[in-house]
Amino acid sequence: MGTTTPPRTLAEALRARGDESLAGLLRARPDLLNPVPNDITQLATRAGTRASVVRALEHLDRFALQTAEALAVAPDPAPYDTLLSLLTGDGLDDGDQRDDVGAAITAALPGALATLREQALVWGEDDRLRLVRTARELLAPSPQHHSPTGLGPTVTEATAGMSPGRLQEILTATGLPATHDPVSAVAALSALFTDRTRMAGLLDTAPVEALSVLDRLVWGPPYGEVTPNPTPPVKWLRDRGLLLPVSTRTVVLPREAALHLRAGRAHRTPEPVPPVVAAAAERDPQAVDRAAAGQAFTALSTIEELLKLWNGGGPAILRAGGLSVRELKRAATALDVTEPIAAFWIELAYGAGLLASDGETDERYAPTPASDEWLDLSAEDRWTHLATAWLAATRTPGLVGGQDAKGRALSALGPELDRSAAPDVRRRVLSLFTELPPGTAPDAESLLRRLRWERPLRGGATTSTTSTSTEGADLRSRLALWTLNEAELLGITGRGALSAQARALLEEGEEAGAALLAPLIPDPLDHVLLQADLTAVAPGPLERPLAETLSVLADVESKGGATVYRFTPGSVRRALDAGQAAADLHAFLAAHSRTPVPQPLSYLIDDVARRHGHLRIGAASAYVRCDDEAVLNEILADRRSTGLRLRRLAPTVLASQSDPGSLLEALRDMGYAPAAESAEGDVLITRTGARRTPPRTPPVPVPEG
């Protein structure tokens, strides 16, 4: 019978994989497919490059990363048992808790190794485990830098270049017999440091102060500075090789000695089990769904209001791209929200393809043609469109107001807001919600701990702190906290818990989410309640044609569960300017009011309509004509008309050097209700111009790396 030769390279290890195992690697590492490799050798080469290995390490959970770090300080190749002992220690118990951790490590290690193999970071059988060379270079300690585990170089590495005489002096000080060459001297010193009994005997003779020095170095960093005349404790350690020189002023605790002091553990706190996401509150699932649906409706109303705000052409684009601070404040005031929340809504509309640049010479933001199609959808379909766009977007509104690497301010809709990790963090945060019972709101701190375990910061995996503040936090933690806030704004969560409609959206798709949301969204109303104080109350959401007409005829005074509209002479004149006649306005109000039309409102409409168009303004530069000479005499006598530079051309005609638009606004400010007319003398109907960009595609998420 023949024997199987173990693979000697990563390429051979990949070649030995089955098709299913190789497919698993490519699913875990899609970056290896761009472009498609020609063969296994090219695939292995690409998997071993520094950029590829760094990306793979960044996708490991904390225990898988700790396993890779332990393997980096183990012999190459390392047996499974050696790796296990580096994670669990040498068996000297620290109590029942230590036994529980050891059992958890023993149970979790096969899964961690499977993850490393899937990521093509480890290859070889269990008796000859090998970390890919680039990963070992990144994770293993060296004379120049220590390992993420806090371990330093080995005795062999630290004594490279040391004089043979100095090595013999160290052997003599430790009570070892002299040797004939440096290689055997280094081997004898390494054997002493790895022998538990002899090493314990050596440390028993150490001064207490020397042991204190070792305590400061044992968990890293293992380097320390010394003076030309070291203190007696440091001199004692240096004479016995427990501190080896790295330079004239720096010494290092060798790896073998540190492992003895650590009881054989590579990590101070191995974390084989992910932290549990704790519940902050348990709420009624139906109340959660209703609260989320209410917020979803608010989100739709806010986006609609933003589109209406920029309907005639939005703010100008900064030269460097994005929205100015002044325009962001203006939008926040119009939407009645804070500036960070306004930035979120603006970025959401942009990410969903509803807003874009118009591409003109005087470049401005404006709604896209897709926004009109979106407005025609049902409320639940509009919400799923926004939610899916948010989940996939790499643009990060939370960065607005901060600074980039060069100290420049980051603006809304600016070019520097993409963060490739954002979709992954959002999905993972919401997936942790789905692991909790319906109606359960997670504790933010425990959620952050879980996320840091799943994607630890390499080099700081065991020391990261937990805080629900974004100040000084790493990017993934900030993204997670922003996700919690944005999910609540968007109606994905309600009262801090995941809604049933969002759970269905995540697990089953848009149709399932829309189907659950539809019964919770109130049906639009076809009526309002007119009040005697010239207001109209909309007790709920209005049908779109009714809402659009009413927004022209009246001004929104307050929002909430019910929207209050106020009729003013200016708002009525705005409706008349849009081509409505007084009879049309009376008929509209009678048809859509559940209460009789109040007499003051009828009088207001008739009074404004009587005066509307009595004056006519056209282009001369501009002129004013009126059949009533007394009105023109009144205008000429008014001091406020001095700046218009009016002069009489005929008894019923005044000419002005102002343009027609300025003249029209000035006379309106003076209390008149003039109408514009065309060159043929017809009244011009001035509807608000809907400005649209050319067809635009939503911004493409930035790929990772």
Automatic annotation (TrEMBL):
Keywords from the named record: ATP-binding, Helicase, Hydrolase, Nucleotide-binding
InterPro entries (alphabetical): XPB/Ssl2_N
GO terms of molecular function: helicase activity
Domain of life: Bacteria
Disordered as annotated region, ranges: 686-705
Domain Helicase XPB/Ssl2 N-terminal: 528-650
Regions that span the bilayer: none
Signal peptide interval: none
Pro residues bias locations: 695-705
Chain coiled-coil ranges: none
Record protein name field: Helicase-associated domain-containing protein
